[in-house]
Specification:
With 369 residues, this protein is an alpha+beta fold. The chain is 29% helix and 41% strand. It has one domain.
């Protein structure tokens, strides 16, 4: 009986000592994770603020682009009552780079940010631009896409109508709710690094009410003046758990056995970007009918209110917030042509923001009745 009691006491003592060592190992590991997270705060602040500064002017112009009509009035007397888009208008905004912060010394000295973006964008096997950078013939193109003219695409639906007293109403917009994005097959994003599968929500609503000052005739061009506005909302989220673990795996040392061999302290890590843009302005359009072509030029002044915010969640207790926003007046110059073949219209528009230097390209088709 005594031997049995001694055995029980020995087991209790061993279990207690093991528990103490286990708790100490877990505490040391958690402290190391917290230290690493603290050193990454500057990295993610740089990322959130840098993206905010680069994306704000792009999203402002993106809110306005995609009207799918350039001429100063709806057109001929037979097909000038209303219109709607046949297919979504393709609108591409080309910015002066959305990763300009990667040219800074802070980025070069970053603990994990440079490694993460290299993995996402520049890795020769998995990076989105890796294959371009690996090919000398396309290296310049990759640099242009990242730092000089980064294309941001959007799709817009359009409709419009002729109202009494020479007034016309133009409408455009698009909504991509989260459930539609979730329906996209995962195979289509297989090129993304593991765990980076994004979530996405997009809403754009725009309207313009314009007054036709002059009807297009043999002696005069068509001239109209319009008041318009648009609202743009973008929400983008990405997971970072696998990327952070790959970037910091060597720095974590040995994971305590009590956590399990597959334990990842950054399993739920991620980033979420949110942008809201309101644009209001006035514009003047001049166009002239030349057979089936209606070349036009449009000059507008717009006031934009933008808010870009970002949140990086690294662990349950480590949350970093950043971003940027601005209120600004911009001048937008647009030119192009409408091609009218009976009720079928095609629009090509090129625009340039005199303030931000952002370019835009729209291509759309519509039916007019």
């Amino acid at each position: 009986m005594k031997k049995f009691l001694v055995l029980i006491l020995a087991l209790m003592l061993f279990t207690g000592v093991a528990s103490v060592f286990s708790d100490a190992a877990e505490d040391a590991f958690n402290e190391l994770v917290n230290t690493l997270v603290g050193t990454m705060e500057g990295d993610f602040s740089l990322l959130l603020d840098g993206l905010g500064q680069d994306l704000d002017p792009i999203l402002m112009q993106n809110a306005l682009d995609g009207q799918n009509i350039g001429m100063a009035e709806l057109g001929s007397k037979r097909f000038n009552h209303f219109y709607f888009s046949i297919l979504p208008t393709v609108s591409i905004t080309a910015a002066n780079g959305v990763f300009t912060f990667t040219d800074t010394q802070a980025y070069e000295d970053s603990l994990v940010l440079k490694g993460m973006l290299d993995s996402i964008l520049f890795d020769e096997e998995e990076g989105l631009l890796g294959s371009l950078l690996a090919n000398e013939d396309y290296e310049v193109l990759a640099d242009v896409l990242l730092n000089k003219a980064t294309p941001i695409p959007a799709l817009k639906l359009n409709a419009g109508a002729k109202l009494p007293s020479n007034i016309e109403l133009l409408l455009y917009g698009m909504w991509v709710p989260p459930f539609l994005w979730d329906m996209i097959p995962a195979d289509t994003m297989s090129s993304l690094p593991d765990g980076l599968m994004p979530t996405f929500n997009y809403l754009n609503i725009g309207a313009e009410l314009r007054y036709v000052l002059l009807r297009d005739s043999k002696d005069t061009p068509g001239v109209s003046i319009g008041l318009g506005g648009a609202y743009n909302h973008l929400l983008l989220g990405v997971g970072l758990g696998d990327l952070l673990y790959e970037s910091l795996g060597d720095s974590l040392g040995t994971i305590p056995a009590s956590f399990g061999a597959d334990y990842n302290p950054f399993e739920d890590a991620g980033m979420e970007f949110s942008s809201d843009t309101i644009v209001l302005g006035i514009n003047t359009t001049i166009s002239k009918k030349l057979a089936v072509l209606y070349p036009f030029i449009k000059l507008g002044a717009y006031y934009a209110i933008t808010d870009f915010s970002g949140i990086a969640t690294l662990t349950e207790t480590a949350v970093i917030e950043g971003g940027d926003g601005h209120n600004d007046m911009d001048m937008l110059v647009s030119t192009g042509f409408d091609l009218m073949l009976g009720p079928l219209g095609t629009n090509l528009t090129v625009d340039y923001n005199l303030g931000s230097g952002v370019w835009g390209l729209d291509l759309g088709s519509r039916l007019q009745f």
